[in-house]
Amino acid sequence: MEAQPQTVHLSDGCAIRAKLLGDEPGKPLMIAHHGAPGLSTHLEAEAAYGDFADKFRVLVFDMRGCGDSDKQRPYTHAQWTHDIDELRQWAGAEKCVMIGASHGGFLTLEYALTYQQHLYGIIVGDSAAQVSHWGAINMTKAALTDPRVKPDPEQLVRMLSGNCRDQDDLMTGFATIAPLYAAPDAIKDLAEIDAGAVISKSIKPFYETVNAAMNDCASRYDVRDRLHEIKVPAFVFVGRHDWITPVPCSEFIAEKIPTSKLVIYQTSGHFAALEQKTPFQRDVREFIKTLGIPEFKA
């Protein structure tokens, strides 16, 4: 039977829309975080990681300020990370595996640094340890020089710096750069699915959340000097053609986390877990076998 959405009321009264995939007794918990606060929802995480429900109870959800969850502030990494731990408790698990890509990768790293005692391991994809490590300037340059797109320069800067004027400003701006998230056309034919089509189904935009994530949160996000504190095993992955968090960002994460493994998917863009789903699933499942999860059955 297909999992049904549930409403989880957090301690501050915020209502979070969540689903437990593969919710069967005895399975360990995997928390799967979507990316792009204010643009994405649990549907992205479900598409990318839902197949792990054969071995896990996979918790997917719309983060605070996204999708069908409450638009209750604050929109900060500290609050979003605390929300994740309340969801873990709601799911009734002392420990879990956490997986997230892009901004979901930021929060996976933040969760590991704050709640490491509740983790078997983490899986971090197409992400970075500091936003200015790649930064709005580099993203703007990449978008303005790629022949696949022709964004309005001023609108692009507003969006990437967290200064969208309204919903229309956000969505028209995002539409102009959406092709950049997939691998280039010459390579994209090798991908198993069109990741962009999957992601577009999950978009339920809120420009205030995007602005907070791209401005206030991004300006404060920097875990470079703390990555060595993460002692649980880490699987780090990235698409070779990721334009927004390019390969060196993931290489840095893998270098600084002492227990990490890095995999680069050669024909992927920013959605490696979707664009090369078969090798991604294979590699992650092999990684999970090494975590020593008591409830896990290979």
Brief description of this entry?
This protein is an alpha/beta fold. Helices cover 39% and strands 15% of the residues.
Write the layout of secondary structure elements.
Blueprint: E1 6-9, E2 15-21, E3 29-33, H1 42-49, E4 57-61, H2 77-90, E5 96-101, H3 103-114, E6 119-125, H4 135-145, H5 153-160, H6 167-177, H7 185-188, H8 195-202, H9 207-220, E7 234-239, H10 247-256, E8 260-265, H11 272-275, H12 277-289
Parallel strand pairs: 3-4, 3-5, 5-6, 6-7, 7-8
Antiparallel strand pairs: 1-2, 2-4
Helix pairs in contact: 1-8, 2-3, 4-5
Entry keywords:
globular, 298 residues, 12 helices, alpha/beta, Rossmann fold
Please characterize this protein's 3D structure.
The structure is a single chain. This protein has 298 residues and is α/β, with parallel strands linked by helices. The protein has one domain (6-133, 191-289): Alpha/Beta hydrolase fold, catalytic domain (Rossmann fold). The protein contains twelve helices and eight strands. Strands 1-2-4-3-5-6-7-8 form an eight-stranded mixed sheet, sandwiched between helices. Helix 3 (103-114) links the parallel strand 5 and strand 6 (119-125). Helix 2 crosses helix 3 (103-114). The radius of gyration is 18 Å and the shape is globular. It starts with 5 loop residues before the first strand and ends in a 9-residue tail after the last helix.
What is the mean pLDDT?
A: 91
Sequence of secondary-structure elements:
EEEHEHEHEHHHHHHEHEHH
Described by its quaternary structure, the protein is single chain
Number of strands: 8
Helix segment count? 12
* CATH architectural category: 3-Layer(aba) Sandwich
Query: How would a textbook summarize the main sheet?
Result: 8 strands, mixed
Shape: globular
